[in-house]
TrEMBL record:
One Gene Ontology term from the biological process aspect of the record: amino acid biosynthetic process
Binding annotation for shikimate: S15, R16, S17, T62, N87, D102, Y212, Q243
SUPFAM superfamilies in the record: Aminoacid dehydrogenase-like, N-terminal domain, NAD(P)-binding Rossmann-fold domains
Record keyword Coiled coil present: yes
Segments forming domain SDH C-terminal: 236-258
Name the record gives this protein: Shikimate dehydrogenase (NADP(+))
Role this protein plays: Involved in the biosynthesis of the chorismate, which leads to the biosynthesis of aromatic amino acids. Catalyzes the reversible NADPH linked reduction of 3-dehydroshikimate (DHSA) to yield shikimate (SA).
Pfam families the UniProt entry points to: SDH_C (PF18317), Shikimate_DH (PF01488), Shikimate_dh_N (PF08501)
Pathway terms, separated by semicolons: Metabolic intermediate biosynthesis; chorismate biosynthesis; chorismate from D-erythrose 4-phosphate and phosphoenolpyruvate: step 4/7
InterPro entries: Aminoacid_DH-like_N_sf (IPR046346), NAD(P)-bd_dom_sf (IPR036291), SDH_C (IPR041121), Shikimate_DH (IPR011342), Shikimate_DH-bd_N (IPR013708), Shikimate_DH_fam (IPR022893), Shikm_DH/Glu-tRNA_Rdtase (IPR006151)
Coiled-coil regions listed in the entry: 146-173
GO molecular function: NADP binding; shikimate 3-dehydrogenase (NADP+) activity
Family according to the record: Belongs to the shikimate dehydrogenase family.
Length: 262
């Protein structure tokens, strides 16, 4: 029987998840249908429950419902608990399970580029939901040091406070966004600046060797600056594919190869 999946969000038209999951299915021989669901802003819970009552197997969750999905779950993975946000749902033994595959998606995308996270020094720009979703998997991937830079320093400090004991081998620090300096193996842009078209100015006192922009399909002043410095850089399409592969493998028990879909 064809397994039913969906991605829920508002707006949802822009989502590329259906095409990715159908491509994974074609490659692995899984019989599935994956659709987009536009939920009303006040209708996430009802729409999700209806989907699973009607036999839906798994659902991805996107903006603005990831925190509501977290709150709705009966069981959460460790990384979803730390992220306080859920992007992957499924039913098991009558319970709603939630995971967050964004961070592992980012780690897999970085590794697929041949960039080495082990013992690395990472600077993350931003301290919002996008950063919270990825920081624990980056720590688990062996980062030696992660510095969180944010315009509002208190938000970065809160994140460090929440995560400081999660992986003892990783040193966590904060810095104000207008004080950026030092040398890093990676700088990751997890601010929403590229989505709104705002310019993030990277000062000359900041030295970095790889640049990862989490957004994709948009122009990015962050990527422009990395390219001007001739630093290896990429947008977030690989992360999108990586999080989808993680969800697909949870639901279907078979894991497509990331490199086949980049
Ligand atoms: P998301 O879920 O995408 O992370 P968010 O929780 O609203 O969204 O967080 C947005 C992040 O981008 C925050 O770190 C925000 O900085 P503040 O905490 O100081 O608001 C950052 N951000 C957004 N626009 C920015 C800009 N123009 N310059 C610098 N940082 C910006």
């Amino acid at each position: 029987m064809t397994k039913q999946f969906a991605v829920i969000g508002n707006p949802i038209e822009q989502s590329r998840s259906p095409e990715l999951h159908h491509a994974f299915a074609a490659k692995t021989g899984v019989d599935l249908n994956y659709k987009k669901i536009l939920a009303p802003l006040d209708g996430f819970e009802k729409t999700t429950k209806d989907f699973f009552v009607q036999g839906g197997v798994g659902m991805n969750v996107t903006v603005p419902f990831k925190e509501q999905a977290f709150a709705l779950c009966d069981q959460l993975t460790e990384r979803a608990k730390i992220a306080k946000a859920v992007n992957t749902l499924w039913m098991q033994d009558g319970k709603l399970f939630g995971d967050n595959t964004d961070g592992q998606g980012l780690v897999a995308a970085i590794q697929a580029l041949g960039w080495n996270l082990a013992n690395s020094r990472i600077l993350i720009l931003g301290a919002g939901g996008a950063t919270r979703g990825v920081i624990y998997p980056l720590m688990q991937a062996g980062a030696k040091q992660i510095v969180i830079a944010n315009r509002t320093l208190a938000r970065a400090e809160q994140l460090v406070d929440d995560l400081k004991t999660a992986v003892p081998e990783t040193e966590l620090q904060t810095i104000a966004l207008d004080q950026l300096s030092g040398e890093f193996d990676f700088v990751i842009n997890a601010t929403s600046a590229s989505l709104t078209g705002d310019v993030l100015q990277l000062p000359e006192t900041l030295v970095f060797h790889h640049a990862y922009e989490m957004a994709y399909g948009k122009s990015s002043s962050f990527l422009d600056q990395a390219q001007a410095r001739q630093v290896p850089s990429t947008d977030g399409f690989g992360m999108l594919v990586g999080q989808a592969i993680e969800a697909f493998s949870i639901w279907n028990g078979v894991k497509p190869e990331l490199k086949d879909f980049l």
